[in-house]
Amino acid sequence: GDGRRQDYERWARNVGGVGGAVAIEKARHDLSIDVYITDLTGNPAGQELATSVRTKLEDKRRALHDLQVLPANVYPVTIAVKLALRPDAEIEKVKDQITTQIKTYLKGRSQIVYQQIGALFFVDGVIDFTGYTLNGAELNLTVPADSVSTLTMAVTT
To answer: Which of 45, 47, 79, 148 has its CA 20 to 30 A from that of 18?
Structure first.
């Protein structure tokens, strides 16, 4: 590669411990490349990992590129919902299943679609749901390019 955005992303992802990488060109000036990385669990990378990636990318970096490697920023996603459950449903089990499905849906996604998440509430034991909000509203969300989403669930019955 010739040191374009995709190359920096690939090079960063090839470093052990890196889960995801997004490179943003020209954010600071014409020759800047900022690479935002996550760890293998999808959380913002620690400073140690960011430094290690920066060191490994140094010899691949185009001479004039001003390279920074940074932990990804966190974009909080808060979901509130009131569930109507079957009498035999276990609320903790239901919450765990829904949370797992939503986390899978959110991973690596920049567009979070309100309606699509609504469909994920229907796990075994759920009859219906009401009062569902995504970050306090009934709207789609866009995760900034330099960020990873983190989920907070507020489930009531």
So the answer is: 79
Q: Which residues pair with 34 in a beta bridge?
A: 24, 68
64 and 100 housed in the same domain: no
Of 21, 43, 71, the position where a domain reaches its end is 71
- The alpha carbon of 154 is separated from its chain's Cα centroid by a whole number of angstroms, namely 19
**pLDDT per residue as tens digits for the range 88-117:** 999 999 999 999 999 999 987 889 999 999
Pairing of strands 32-39, 18-25: antiparallel
| pLDDT score at 3 | 63
Task: Say if residue 78's pLDDT is above 80.
Answer: yes
The total of structural domains in the chain comes to 2
Is 117 strand, coil or helix?
Answer: helix
Do residues 44 and 35 touch, judged by C-beta distance below 8 A? no
Q: Determine the average pLDDT of the residues in 134-153.
A: 94
